[in-house]
């Protein structure tokens, strides 16, 4: 029997084996009879995790319309996918393989977005603060309208923490409770996609070379994560930036010179991931009473792509829906592709639900080590 700690973390696991192991994830979720691994789950980041925080903002980066959410019972909710995000799948999904059951967190329901004004019962289970187009820097993504940048997400979390203090009766009780929760953040993508590599961003590129820009981001990110610790977080998972040069939008815009992806863009974010790993090492030393994990988005993204290539369906790297040439998002009320499991990307930037569901258990070993 493979242990929970080692499952999906072995170097010998082949893409085909991974597909066999996690394919059940696409059709299954926790049945509510399990006790969640943690009492609450707080989510920060960008459109990869957003579950509706942008719905009422004045922005192009919102997707509370069809065909988004076509595979969710609730329909369009503001998720930038046809169904679940990776953060959703981490919350509720589990995988099954020859008698081995490996739940992720085991929650019965999705974590509500902050913008939905969750009630006292809901916030004790967790809140999703993620916002489409948002980044570590305040200015990132603002060319398309409003978003909730990471610093504002933390201020929103301060409101939640204050409410939990009131609910539980004291700051001591609240922080003891919050210290048992999982905090996950996926940020930094838009600081590149919707800031540094924009054609109009020549000033910031002239001011900072790629390594200097990564240093700028990590300095700000460090202050933000330190603030999260001050607010009671003790189990924190930070996702690196994935190979954003493999998104349909950047491939169409920049070209690949015959390569599968825009390699120059993928190399651009390497300094950020390297510095993020160092930051996590520093945080572990600074806060021995807390646990921090690095979620290797490049490795997981590569494995998910390999699963698609080895699976029985044809792999498509083009969007599943008709996309806007301005935003790269699905055009409202259009009919998407019918064979969604054969598409890695839902629109020009975001993965399909199946890709997200396959990614979730691959992040599981790193998450489990801090629970």
From TrEMBL:
Residues 1-32 form the signal peptide. Keywords: Hydrolase, Lipid degradation, Lipid metabolism, Secreted, Signal. GO terms for biological process: lipid catabolic process. GO terms for molecular function: hydrolase activity, acting on ester bonds. InterPro entries: GDSL, GDSL_esterase/lipase, SGNH_hydro_sf, SGNH_plant_lipase-like. Belongs to the 'GDSL' lipolytic enzyme family. This is GDSL esterase/lipase. It is found in: Secreted. CDD domains: SGNH_plant_lipase_like. Transmembrane segments: none annotated. GO terms for cellular component: extracellular region.
């Amino acid at each position: 029997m493979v242990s929970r700690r080692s499952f999906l973390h072995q170097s010998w696991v082949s893409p085909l084996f991974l597909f066999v192991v996690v394919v059940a994830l696409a059709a299954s979720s926790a049945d509510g009879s399990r006790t969640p691994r943690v009492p609450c789950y707080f989510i920060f980041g960008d459109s990869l995790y957003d579950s509706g925080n942008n719905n009422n903002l004045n922005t192009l980066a919102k997707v509370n319309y069809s065909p988004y959410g076509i595979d969710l019972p609730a329909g369009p909710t503001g998720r930038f996918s046809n169904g679940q995000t990776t953060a959703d799948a981490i919350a509720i999904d589990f995988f099954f393989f020859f008698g081995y059951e490996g739940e992720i967190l085991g929650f019965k329901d999705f974590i509500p977005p902050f913008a939905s004004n969750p009630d006292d019962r809901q916030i004790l289970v967790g809140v999703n603060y993620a916002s489409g187009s948002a980044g570590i820097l305040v200015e990132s993504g603002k060319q398309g309208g409003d978003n909730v940048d990471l610093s504002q997400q933390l201020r929103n979390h301060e409101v939640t923490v204050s409410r939990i203090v009131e609910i539980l009766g004291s700051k001591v009780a609240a922080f003891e409770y919050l210290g048992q929760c999982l905090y996950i953040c996926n940020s930094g993508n838009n600081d590149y996609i919707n800031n540094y590599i924009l054609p109009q961003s020549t000033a910031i590129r002239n001011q900072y070379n790629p390594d200097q820009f990564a240093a700028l981001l990590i300095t700000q990110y460090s202050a933000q994560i330190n603030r999260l610790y001050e607010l009671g977080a003790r189990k924190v998972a930070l996702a690196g930036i994935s190979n954003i040069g493999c998104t349909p939008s950047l491939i169409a815009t920049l070209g690949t010179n015959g390569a599968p992806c825009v390699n120059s863009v993928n190399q651009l974010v390497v300094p950020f991931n390297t510095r993020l790993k160092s930051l996590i090492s520093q945080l572990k030393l600074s806060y021995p009473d807390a646990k921090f994990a690095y979620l290797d988005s490049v490795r997981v993204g590569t494995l998910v792509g390999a699963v698609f290539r080895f699976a029985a369906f044809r792999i498509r790297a083009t969007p599943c829906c008709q996309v806007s040439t301005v935003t790269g998002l699905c055009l409202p009320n259009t009919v998407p592709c019918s064979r969604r499991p054969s598409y890695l990307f839902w629109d020009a930037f975001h993965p399909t639900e199946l890709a997200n569901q396959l990614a979730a258990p691959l992040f599981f070993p790193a998450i489990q080590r801090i629970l």
